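Sequence of C4-dicarboxylate ABC transporter permease (Marivita lacus).
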Amino acid sequence: MIEDLIGAGFALMTWSNVAAMVFGTLIGIVIGALPGLTTTIGLAILIPLSFGLSPLVALGLMAGLYNGSMYGGAIPAILLNIPGTPAAIATTFDGYPMTEQGNAASALRVACFSSAVGGFSSALALLLLAPPLSLVTLAFGPPEYFWIATFGLVSIAVLIGGDPIKGMISALLGLLISSVGMDTVTGRIRFSFGRLELVDGVNIVVVLIGLFALPRVLQMAEDAVTRGVRVSDLKIGRGQSTPFPIAHLIPTWIRSSVIGIMVGILPGAGGNIAAFLSYNEAKRSDRDPESFGKGNPKGVAAAEAGNSSDNAASMIPTLTLGVPGNAIAALIMGGLLVHGLQPGPSLFRDNGEIVYGFVLQMMITSVLLFALGGMIATRIFAQVLRVPQVMLAPMIVALMCLGLYTVNNSQFELFMMIGFGVFGYILMRMQFPLPPLILGVILGGMAEQNLRTALLISRGDWWHLLASPISKTIAGLVVLVLLVPLYRHVRERQSEALKNG
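Predicted 3D structure, token representation.
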């Protein structure tokens, strides 16, 4: 571990890696600052564009974009009461009231510092927790991997969105897509429809761009917002900003960072959940809870530290188990696969220098927020809010097509991407969650291969899947997750009975 960590530190000192982290952070802030664009869209566009880069440079871009976009979402949330990303919703509660009081500069400064602290804390947790967990997972065999894949898939399907049935249907559609191509056990070709391009299965980059980026762009075109934000509405320079002592925020940062890390490790959670929990806890524990929602800087600090401390923590199950903690982690996992890196127990053993380099990049890009997310940069990035969304939509589509075509020079994949995009748009309009679908594509092959391998080893004995204590434990967790919707239904029925009674 120490040798790989030292080697990663020296590898990051090259100009290309430093430039990647700086550029990724800047682009992330811009993406987060634009309502309608999200971290998932940015990563979906970035992954194919980074195909020709070295793995460490590509991961530096991803780390910078991830951390930068989390802070960027606070810019419109504070200035316009419009969250740039879903995780910035809680930031609007106190951020915009501070702007109305003439304290926009202080609010942005608190958000910047809080995002940096949360991101650094999360990366530190990833550095300390992931290596020992990866050693534990070396004891895993095919049955354990099957249950891990099932647990990740069921957790995302049940816990994301308001309808578990739609979540499970979405996950099953992902499993269906993952079955396209050559059977890894028998070598037979499945569902290729005579197309040689589908023999190796559906390109994960095609699915990522089609399902995550294109539906959002189509929604932007549908909204047809033809005007950007006026300069007078940004309110950065309005009034005299009242400075707030940063030292008073330290307890809030510590509490919110711990909450965000714990939420990030849980599959199916996300930065928005971490932000709400951190905000509620900050309000509950404060001496003046009534001031929250009226421009209390601690509310901004709690929300931003909470959603940013989810960042690297969500990568802990991704890197060690190969199970993404949320949709963004699933995209980064896709980026790892594109560059020939297989997340899981062998990742730290076989590619230690690269994976530790990525952990350090998450730390460094968090620190870069202090320098790049200060008031000068914020004033510049806030100007991107003036670009109309109808102009952004075609530019984004052009970048997606260019990035995808450079991967394999395949027109067939471009048409597939458009098909997946239209399909994803229809699912989104029908309120089907898309993360379970993409997770089904990523984890489907892992679940199928390990299930069939375990059955071959045991000569068809299904009880072999529950032979070890680890398998029994993970299978029990799967059952508990499946019981969550039933528990919610019972609670709702009881609440309705009490209201009617």
